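Review this today:
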Amino acid sequence: MACCRGEMKKHRIAALLITNRSDHFYLTGFNGEDSAALITARDVHVITDGRFDESAKQEAPWAKKWLRKETLIEEIGQVVARLRLRALFVQQEKLTVADHAALKRAVRTVRLQEAPPLAQQMRRLKSSSESRLLQKAIRIAEDAFVETIRGIRLGMTELELAARLEYEMKRRGATGLSFPTICAEGLNAALPHAEPGGRKVRPGSAILFDWGARWHGYCSDLTRVVFVGSIRPTLREVYRLVLEAQKRAIQAIRPGRRMCDVDAVARDYIAAAGFGKEFNHGLGHGLGLNVHEAPSLSWRSDEKLAAGMVVTVEPGVYLPGVGGVRIEDDVLVTKGGSRVLSRLDKRLESAVLRGIV
């Protein structure tokens, strides 16, 4: 909180309204839905409702608590009036046009101003404790995947495999999923964000898994492709290409390097092999309380990497009518370069599942 107040002082912000749930949790430790935090130079005010009375006491005992009986916007107006604020900085990206109009009516003569992304900027750099939480989320996801792969049988559907993987994550203590699990067999793997359906595992199936576990709010995000018994020559070539592109990109990660330059390392390598158009998304993204957050490791960003950032590195090649390969790991930017936080084997020989019946 001291860091946040330091940033507020730098930007001459006397009162900051936090309505982004992830930012709220990051700054206060409180995770109640449909709530807000109001931060001033002296106090932190948590505005919530009776459902989260005890949760607020336990998670943010040092904050002043306001239990609303009306709407959240109306209660914010009452708190602002009681504090006699003259100006209020708000997170515009988390307010609808209707909410902004209602808030303007609720605070009456108080001046509303757009807040710079202070919390989002702070969240880019992970502390050692945050890194440990991320690593725990990764270990849960990895162990669950290994167990799921052991249980693959012919005839299982994408939906069944996704459900088993999610069950194994929760059985290992995951406090939630980073996102709905992707399990794409065969032709479906040509869709980067395919939804699991009724396609079944068969001899020669190539199955793409994209999954992640939450651990105390923090997300993991991994992708692997496995092959049932054998690999089509085209996918064998693409797998080796994507794996080498990922290795090169990870080696290029270090503080001070531009995001777009790291993206180019993988993208140019894949394009030189003739598959440039088939790599149709950014190389990666920030990872933390949200599975997709700043920074953006893509051609669109000239922002520079900094020690403490955690990013995914996930090149992919997608071939309509054939299938697709994406390999994704979670990487911490260190002072001297980078450290891959995920440990799952990704060698081609380890991706081939033998003896599936």
Notes: The CA atoms of residues 77 and 105 lie 8 Å apart.
